[in-house]
Design goal:
3 helices; two-stranded parallel ribbon; 11% strand; 2 strands; alpha+beta; 90 residues
Length: 90
């Protein structure tokens, strides 16, 4: 069985120095939109002060709450309705 995670992670690490992001103490919100990318950001940014909050991180081909599974409005504004989002830039 092919596991794409290891080569993908190695390639990302060749392109980007993630350690400064890990050490920055940021809170990063990721909407995986019920897709295959769920779990990548928490794994890539683990091991530092940065916290990753992932929503819609279970695979679901029905894409609940979305009329179209695209990262455009109104779908992209779902995260803006989370109670812990304090900056309204959506």
């Amino acid at each position: 069985m092919f596991d794409p995670v290891t080569p993908y992670e190695a390639h990302i690490n060749q392109l980007i120095d993630l350690q400064p992001i890990r050490d920055a103490g940021l809170t990063v919100m990721v909407d995986s939109m019920w897709g295959n990318g769920a779990g990548y950001f928490p794994r890539l940014l683990a091991g530092g002060k940065t916290k990753v909050v992932e929503i819609h991180n279970q695979r679901n081909p029905v894409f609940p709450e979305m009329k179209r599974p695209e990262p455009i409005r109104p779908t992209s504004t779902l995260a803006c309705r989370l109670p812990w989002i304090t900056t309204r830039t959506c």
